[in-house]
Amino acid sequence: MLTIGCHLSSAKGYEAMAKEAEKIKANTFQFFTRNPRGGKAKAIDLKDIEKFLSKASDLEIYKILAHAPYTLNPCSPDEKVREFAYQIMTDDLERMEYIPGNFYNFHPGSHVKQGVEKGIDLIGEMLNKVLRPEQSTTVLLETMAGKGSEIGRNFEELREILDRVELQEKVGVCLDTCHVFDGGYDIVNDLDGVLNKFDQVIGLSRLKTIHLNDSIFGLGSRKDRHARIGEGKIGREGIVRIINHPALRNLPFYLETPNDLEGYGKEISFLREAWIEP
Ligand code: FE
Ligand code: FE
Ligand code: ZN
Known about the structure:
Layout: E1 4-8, H1 14-23, E2 28-32, H2 46-59, E3 65-67, H3 79-96, E4 103-106, H4 116-130, E5 138-142, H5 155-163, E6 171-176, H6 177-182, H7 191-201, E7 207-212, E8 214-215, E9 226-227, H8 235-244, E10 253-255, H9 261-274
Parallel strand pairs: 1-2, 1-10, 2-3, 3-4, 4-5, 5-6, 6-7, 7-10
Antiparallel strand pairs: 8-9
Bound molecules: fe (iii) ion (2 copies) and zinc ion (ZN).
């Protein structure tokens, strides 16, 4: 079965997200660990978690994806900003242990005139401070569109970050289809070529999740503007090839398209129909 879901609001807790997922026939979902701008997280609600875990097992929801606040910058030139990123990531990963065995995705950050190499060093240092041998969560670096001084705009940069990590089995990659396309990887006309490149540079075994988005702007635009499935430059056919590609078809897919719950439901039912049973 295709594993697909979308981004859901975590404001009402985990059980509420599982119920929403059920409504739209999603068997996974993504959520922000706290306000996406990085505010305080809600206290852990053990009852909610217990209900969620039982509901998730009934619905066969697995491999949910937490997304770090996007304002975190683990490679900021400002030490206070880096310290803030460290605090939030540490706290988020402690919380994730209440729902063990899932994924935590973050944007590598922006180096802001320090240069890519310095930025990569700082991200590597951050990961080595944050990761614990006993954690059950896999931390994922997201492929970025390359706006401004964003790190992770190509596979080589992500590989360099991964190379600096001591606890190798705790890290992986989340590929965002809008971002890689905006970053200049032609997943529309040469999906095989792009995935071969990913395999050579990073290794497909490191690829754990896919953010499935169409892109408003064209190949190499570096704009990072998500479109609904079929309403962007990747297009319906391009997206259908992605979910059916042998290297990707069994990974979990998460929609981050501009939609309400009903819109997500429609995209999910379209994609379920377009996914070819092996
Ligand atoms: Fe993201
Ligand atoms: Fe994304
Ligand atoms: Zn994006």
